Amino acid sequence: MRASGTAAPGNGTERATRSAGAGRRALIAVLLGGWVLLACACGGGADRPLGVFAAASLVDVLEELRAGTRAAGERVFDLHVAGSETLLAQVRAGAPADLLVVARPLTVDERPASAQGEPRVLATSPLVMAVADGDPCPGGPEALSGRRVAMADPALAPAGRYARAALQRHGVWDALEGGLLLGRDVRDACSWVVLHEADVVLCYAADVTAVEGLTACAALGEEQARYELWVVAPPERRGAARALAATLFTPPARAALRAHGFDTPW
Amino acid sequence: MVIEALLVSVQVAALAVVVSLPVAVPLALCLARRSFRGKILVETVVALPLVLPPVVTGFVLLMLLGRGTLVGGKLTEVFGASLLFTPAAAVLAAAIVAFPLLVRTLRVAFEGVDPQLEEAASTLGATTWRTFTRVTLPLAWHGVVAGLVLAFGRALGEFGATLVVAGTLPGGRITAPVAVYRMLLSGDPWRARGLVGGLVIVALLTTACAELLVRGGRSRRGRRA
Fold it and tell me: Across chain B, how many H-helices and E-strands are there?
C-alpha cells in the first residue's frame, strides 16, 4: 500500500507483506537495540578505573603522569579536568571521582560528603603578571592602569578571585575593574595576551611555563594557587585511591610538576 | 587520540539519535496532526534545550542524575553505580540537546504529507502502523532524513552539557569536542588542529550523505510521477 504506487496482485502482494513485516521488525530491532545499548552503557561502575577530577591548569602534568602509568603497565586512571567550581558540583552530585584536586582550599561547608581526612597540598603556583614575549613588563600592579589587562573571571575560577584580591590589596581594583578582560578560565586570559588582544595577564607562574609566547614579570605578592588533593572515593575503592594518591607524591611526580612550573611544598 | 575521540563522538551521536526516535516520531506526529489543550506548553518544553545554554542543560541533568536526587538515587540503585560520567550520560546529554531539532524537522516533514492520503489508507483497511510505514514515512522521507542528520550533527558537536555530566568516560575516553577543549586548555592549542579537521570532515561527509539521500528520494518520486 504505497502512496505512490499500487500493490501487485498475487505473489507480489505476499512478497510486499513479507517485506513490510521484515522492515517493521528491523525498525523495531534498531529502536529497541538503541535502548538496550543505552541500558548496558549505564552499568559497569564497579570495575571502572580510578577517577581523578582535577583543576584545569593541571591538565598537562596529569596527562603526562597518566601516560607514564600506561607505559609502565600500571593501572591507568581516568582523568577529568574542569574549573574547580564545576568539579565540586560534579563530585557533590555523585560523579565517580576517587581523587579530587582543586585549585583552592575548601571551607568545611564546601567539602564533599565523601571527602576523607585532611587534604594534602600537591602543588602551588604564585600569581604573577605576564606579557607576550618581547613586550615590556609593567613596573608593578600600580602601573597597570591604561593597559588592557586580562584575568580569569572571579565568579568562575579561583585564579580570578586571587587576581581580584591582589588588585584590591594594591588599591587599583576600582580603577581597572571596568576595563578588565575576563576569561572563563585563566588559560583563556593567557591566550588573549599571546594573540595581543590584551597587554598583561594575571595568571599563575605555571601557566607561563605551559603557554608558549608568555613571559613572566613580577609576582603579585602573597596570592598563589594551592592545589589540594582530596580522597573522595567510596569505601570499597578508598585503598586503591590512597595508593594512587601516594604515587602523585613520589620523586618522578615531583619532577613532572616542577617541569611544568609548579612548586611542590613536600 | 584523534581517531578515538572522533569514534566516541560518532557512536554517542548515533546512539543519541536512535534513542530519541521512539519518542520524537510519535511526538512529532502528534504535534503535526492533532490539536489538544496544552499543545503550546508541550511545544515550549520540547524547544527548551534549543534555547537554553547547553551547560545549563548539563547542570539540570547533573541535578537529576546525581545520587542525592530521587531520579538519580533510583537509577543508582538499579544500575549499581551513578549514571554520571558513563556513556549513557553522554548519550542522554547529546539526545536532549538534539531532541528539539529532530522533533521540529520531523513535524514539518509530517505536516507536508497530505492527510487525505493517510485517510484513504485507513479507509482501505490499513492499520495506523501500516499507514505510517507505507504512506506517511515514504512521503516524508526526505524531511525525516534531514531531521536525523540535523540531530546527528547537533549531537556530534555537543560540548557544554557533555562536559558537565560525562566529561570523561570509563577508560579515559572523551568525545571530540571535549578533546578539543582539553587541547585548548593545554599549552599547545595547535594540537587540536587534527581533531578540528577530523570533525569538519565528518560533518561534511554527514551533510553530503544527507544531501545525496534527499536528492535520490526526490528523483525517485519524480520518476514515479
Answer: 12, 0
Chain A interface test: which of B186, B191, B223 (most A C-beta within 10 Å)? B186
**Closest chain B residue to A16 measured between Cα atoms?**
B134
pLDDT band at A191 (very low <50, low <70, confident <90, very high): confident
Domain ranges, ordered by start, for chain A: 51-124+226-259, 125-224
Residue A171 C-alpha, separation from nearest chain B C-alpha, in angstroms: 31
**Given strand A200-204, what is the order of strands in its sheet?**
A78-82, A51-55, A99-102, A214-231, A116-132, A200-204, A149-152, A181-183
Q: Report pLDDT for B162.
A: 92
pLDDT score recorded for residue B76 = 77
Chain A residues with CB-CB distance to B91 below 8 A: 38, 41
From chain A, pick out residues whose CB is under 8 angstroms from the CB of B85. 51, 80, 95-96
B187 and A210 within 8 Å at the Cβ level: the answer is yes
The domain spanning residue B213 has which CATH number? 1.10.3720.10
The string of pLDDT tens digits covering residues B155-206 is: 998 998 998 888 888 878 889 999 888 887 776 667 788 889 988 998 888 8
Range of the domain at B212: 2-224
Q: What is the mean pLDDT of chain B?
A: 87
Distances, alpha carbon B143 to alpha carbons A144, A168, A181, B34, B211, in Å: 57, 58, 44, 19, 11
Q: What is the value of ipTM here, to two decimals?
A: 0.73
Q: Number of Cβ pairs closer than 8 Å across A and B?
A: 151
Q: In this predicted structure, what is the pLDDT of residue B111?
A: 93
**Closest Cβ opposite residue A35 in set B19, B68, B133:** B19
CA distance B92 to chain A (A): 9
Q: Do A38 and B15 touch (CB under 8 A)?
A: yes
Domain A51-124+226-259 part of CATH 3.40.30.10 = no
The domain A125-224: what is its CATH number?
A: 3.40.190.10
Burial label for A115, CB within 10 Å (0-12, 13-18, 19+), is: middle
CB nearest to B87's CB, from A41, A191, A211: A41
User: What number is the average pLDDT over the span A8-19?
Assistant: 54
A182 DSSP β-pair partners: A151
Say if residue A7's pLDDT is above 50: no
Please tell me the total count of domains within chain B: 1
Tens digits of per-residue pLDDT, B24-43?
A: 999 999 999 999 999 999 99
Residue A3 pLDDT > 50: no
Instruction: Identify which of B21, B81, B168 has the shortest CB distance to residue A45.
Output: B81
Q: How far apart are alpha carbons A77 and A75 in whole angstroms?
A: 7
